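User: Good morning. I'm curious how magnesium ion would be positioned relative to this chain. Could you predict the structure with it bound?
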Amino acid sequence: MTAAVLELRDVTRHYGGKRQWLGRGAAIRAVDGVDLTLAAGEVLGIVGESGSGKSTLGRIAAGIEAPSSGMVTFQGQRYAPIDTAAWRRQRRRVQVVFQNPSQALDPRLTIAAQIRGVLAAHGIEALERGVDRTEAILSRVGLTGLGTRFPHQLSGGQLQRAVIARALVLSPEVIVCDEAVSALDVSVQAQILNLLKDLQAELGVAYLFISHDLGVVRHVSHRIAVMQRGRIVETGPASEVFARPQDPYTRSLIAALPAATPAARRARDAARQAA
Ligand SMILES: Nc1ncnc2c1ncn2[C@@H]1O[C@H](COP(=O)(O)OP(=O)(O)O)[C@@H](O)[C@H]1O
Ligand SMILES: [Mg+2]
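Assistant: Good morning! Here's the predicted structure, ligand included:
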């Protein structure tokens, strides 16, 4: 069995519910008793409609938000309390790629300068066996020669490539991708998805791959967890979840997919019949 890199046990996150002027406000259970295991080198897709708690789960998995209760372990160790020195060291190991790359980057710095800054912040040498790490990673994500550009000089797809480069240059064990292609045009989406898929296979990094779009999740995931109202309602190998969805909610997600291939059409039509 492959080792678990990330484990969530009975993780819950409430928002609100604090004492207010007229009594106590109702708490939102954004994440409600979630158990998840991400194996080393695995792509686990998290899918569910907007508001189902995916991003909250992603922030907790990345260690940038603490759960209200439950336990998160990275390689068998609990996350250090947020903002401590130990936490900052851990942050290198679990990186995040969010929806809007222009917000993730500093508009005042060139792309190369931002990647060098990240390396310096983590005390990593700029050269690896004589090769400039920044140049190498930019080439790997398809941005050869574009390191001298500022964010406003790049397209949406190029910006997301830069964000991916900045995450990968730290050689993380896990990348949490939260709606990483959702803001991009459909044609660009496919390019970025293929890049993420290739990089994953090449580097063996694990992804927690979050999207509201089951078609996108299916394209990259080994395993899929379906989330509804803060809970995981179904989980299994991606092909299995598509071929034999067990939960009515999963069936409704599959039934809503546009069918691009005959196989997808068959799966969708079967799900529509069963839904
Ligand atoms: N920081 C926050 N404060 C209050 N409520 C929040 C916060 N973040 C998320 N929520 C609420 O938690 C629920 C889940 O949100 P989210 O995790 O963003 O879902 P998703 O990513 O699936 O759309 C929603 O009802 C949302 O309004
Ligand atoms: Mg979200």
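The chain has two domains: 4-93+172-274, 101-171. The CA atoms of residues 177 and 214 lie 14 Å apart.
Let me know if you'd like a different ligand tried.
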